Every structure is written in C-alpha cells, then in structure tokens.
Amino acid sequence: MTHTVPWTDGSWSNRPVAVATDADGLHVTAREGSDAWRLTSYGFVHSSEHALLTAFEPESAVEVRFRLDFAEQFDQAGIFVRVGDESWVKAGVEVSDGEESLGAVVTRGSSDWSLSPVPGWAGRLVTVRGSWSGNALTVRARVDDEPWRLVRVAPLMADGPVTAGPYCCAPSRSGLTVHFTSWRTTPPDDHLHPGG
C-alpha cells in the first residue's frame, strides 16, 4: 500500500538553516559545510546532514522526489537511511567535479562512495527509491517518468529501529535550497531484476 508521508511526520537529524512548506512541497535550505561521511580517504567524520527521518520498516520502500537544481561542488539530495551513528546510507544526486552524478554512500564504520554521471537531468524531477527486502537495501532512481535505474544493492541488517527520509547537504557553500515535491512509503520491489 502506498502512503504519502506528511512533512510534519519526520524529525531532523540536524536542523537546516530554513524549512518551508507550501502547496508544491518542502523547501530546505542547507547549512554551509553540512555533510555525511566517515573516515575513508579524507580522514574526517561529518554527521551534519539534514535528514528528515521517520520509522522505516522491513519489507517496505521509501521514495523521495526533488527538483534537481544544483550549482556548486558537492550539492546533494536524495534519501537517507539511518541504522546508527556508524551505519547509514545516503543516495541521490550530487554535483561532483562539475557534473550531476547519481550515486550512493554506504557506511558501515567507514564510508564507500559510488557515482555515475547523469547528463540531461538538471532542472528535472528526480525520484530516489530505497527498497528494504530481506537483508538488503536496493536503491533505484529515475528522472521524470523515465525507467528506473539500479543505483546500489547494499546489506541492511539491524537489531534496532531504522529510520529513513529525504536529505540534503551543502558541503562547500551556503545558499543551497532543495525543493522536495513528495515523500512516500510503498511496498518493496518484487525483484532485483526486471522480469525476475
């Protein structure tokens, strides 16, 4: 069963500079320097992301849609799935070295980052979906109503509560405002591969 999650249902992991809602959705202005990362390559730990989180149940999916309107290095938005301080996944679109790229950071103690350029997505609506089934989180994304793309399959096992929802970060600048247009929960994906 698909359920629209009210913006008021979530709690912020870190409060943004500004939050506003209107008929078109949620507008979030990120703090300069906000980010989520642990150790790998850079050596630092950042846990200042702006993630609006609510309970995420096994055998379900979380889906977030936002307008891709980024301009600076490392501007990013998508979904955040939190198991604990050292175990989480963020997935979505990020500006890296001058181009928008679709990717994920999977963190279990240390972070692991993957990216793939998505030319032609700028200015359009991007949907990112995290489906928790069995012991895995399967992340897919699409632009407008184009076919889903597989982004990542990562282990997701938890002894306690898991939370998930929309997130954004602005590691290198002030003034990033992300326009989220929807937040939904749905049944999980039936199969890892089409026709499976």
UniProtKB/TrEMBL annotation:
Name of this chain's protein: DUF1349 domain-containing protein
Gene source species: Nocardioides cavernae
Top-level taxon in the UniProt lineage: Bacteria
InterPro entries, A to Z: ConA-like_dom_sf, DUF1349
Signal peptide, first to last residue: none
